[in-house]
Amino acid sequence: MPKPKPPSARPRLWQALPLLLLALPFLAACKDEVQAAKPAAPPPPVSVVRLQPGSVPIQSVLPGRTAPYQVAEIRPQVSGLLQERLFREGTEVEAGQPLYQIDPAPYRAALASAEANQARAEASLQDARATTSRYRPLVGQNAVSRMAYDKAVAVAAQAEAEVAAAKASVQAARIDLERTRITSPISGRTSRSNLTVGALVTANQAAELLTVTQLDPILVDVTQPAEALLRLRRDMQAGRLLRGEGEAVDVRLTLGDGTEYPLVGRLQFAEATVDRDTGSVTLRATFPNPDGMLMPGLFVRARLEAGVAQNALLVPQQAVTHNARGEATTLVVDEQGTVRQRVIETKQAIGNQWLVSTGLSAGDRVVVQGMQRVRDGVKPEVREITLQELEQGSGPAVAAAQARG
Predict the structure, then answer these.
(1) Residue 90: CATH number of its domain
(2) 330: exposed, middle or buried (C-beta count within 10 Å: 0-12, 13-18, 19+)?
(3) What Cα–Cα distance (Å) separates residue 134 from each residue in 139, 145, 267, 276, 338?
(4) Assign residue 278 a region: left if phi > 0, alpha if psi is -120 to 50, beta otherwise?
């Protein structure tokens, strides 16, 4: 049977409790003294860029496709047997250069026959005119009847008409003979030949012999939404966007692989109507293509110089975020050094900056570095930097991050 503990050992905890209660205020005071002695955290460093208004060229990036400047489908205008092909497929030809030769023998014979008919008609005309000349003085002397003279005049007139018809026949026969040599109506590059020597062709047949395509210059057809075109026109009328009168609009191309086409094009015209299916307007530009780099049918992106925005404000893209409602926001340090959040409206990206239409003013200091460590109402350590320093990656926020790393 275990022995009970001595009764004198049980009340020791109760005896120490008053001492603990007396020590609590002393411990709390010591904690306050330690917290007071701890130094306050320094304000977070941020870098800001002061917004300066300026003239900014406005560009529109539009999708489009290349198209040939001119296309000629070569078809025979006379019937006959192909005697010779006078070009090499896929090469450049000049306007008027011979392409094919059709057998000219039948057309030479037709021309000779027409010339003979013309000679016979001219001989008949000469005889009729001589008869009329002889009868004219005799009519006054009543040596020839008036009826005979009138008949001689009519025969001469008929002979003149026959000569005119014969000359027209000669001209038609000569044209047909010339058309036996098929020439290129334009300068350009030839396609493959659809017929070979020895083939029988007919005048104005449905199938073309080949196609000649002019690629220098080359056309680029781009589409722009009608709403965007209307917005540009409203900005111009309001004076927010300026463009010189009569100035040609420059166009630059980005090819499908992302490379930049080195030559600059010019905008030619815009369609006067809106496509009902797509709600867009087609614009056409011409580009020099001396090396044939651009081929018809290529998908490209065209950048058009729409105009120059006056007193425009540009904000670096890293300074713009979006809130829960999807609105574009940025942080601004006010005159008292306090961070304030602004809801802004961005129109388009220009390089690595946003063109801002509302929400900011000239002279505002926008936070571009250290945004993760500040919020609305905080007073940070502010250093103003330039856009060049921002692009180079310098600033107090970057230095602080490097020091911590």
Answers:
(1) 2.40.50.100
(2) buried
(3) 9, 12, 73, 77, 120
(4) alpha
Please list the residues that pair with 80 across neighbouring strands.
201
Whether residue 145 is found in the same domain as residue 167: yes
For 52, the 3-state DSSP assignment is coil
* Angle, helices 146-179/105-140, rounded to nearest 10 degrees: 160
Residue 266 host element (H or E): strand 265-270
Whether residue 247 is contained in a domain is answered as: yes
Lookup: tokens for 49: 């860029």
* C-beta separation of 365 from 384 below 8 A: yes
Range of the domain at 365: 46-56+311-404
φ/ψ of residue 8, rounded to 5: -75, -15
Q: DSSP 3-state assignment of 166?
A: helix
Q: What is the pLDDT of residues 27-64, one digit of tens each?
A: 555 555 545 555 666 788 999 999 988 888 777 788 99
105: tokens are: 């023998």
Other C-beta atoms closer than 10 Å to the C-beta of 345 total 13
Longest dimension (CA), the chain: 190
d(CA 241, CA 248): 16
DSSP assignment of 185-217 equals SS-EEE---SS-TT-EE-TT-SS-SEEEEEEEE
Report the C-alpha dihedral over residues 114, 119, 120, 124, rounded to 10 degrees.
140
Residue-wise pLDDT for 290-306, tens only, equals 988 999 999 999 988 77
Rounded Cα distance, 31 and 164, in Å:
127
| Token digits of residue 238 | 């309001």
Model pTM? 0.65
DSSP letters for 305-330: EEEEEEEEEEEEGGG-EE-TTS-EEE
Strand 365-369 versus strand 200-201 pairing type = unpaired
In a shared domain, residues 145 and 252? no
The answer to whether residues 194 and 74 touch, using CB atoms and an 8 Å cutoff, is no
* CB atoms inside a 10 Å sphere around CB 19: 8
CA atoms within 13 A on the CB side of 276: 0
